Fold:
Amino acid sequence: MLVLTILSLPSYAKESNYYWAEYQQGSGWNDAASYEQQNDIAAHLAFLKRSFDDGKLLMSGQIFDANAMFILLQADSLASARAFLKGDPLVVNGVFKLTVSG
Structure:
């Protein structure tokens, strides 16, 4: 099941340079805990909120059947999108690994 958290496109968002990121369970994923109970979830949610407020994050959601998440973001390049998302606390601590595509 795919659940989307859809946020309206900010008026200052550009019309190009959108990137899709898929988060999959990483080596730091705790099988005994739900998504909401994973280490650093509060820091991750704060990261998402800041990213939306800054106009970088356009949409995010959780893919429950796969214990995965996705993010649609705006960045100057694929490299900058990857570098930005590597700062997500859940990625930094290995709870999720990510794949980013243009």
Observations:
- The first helix runs from residue 41 to 53.
- Confidence is low (pLDDT under 50) at residues 1-8.
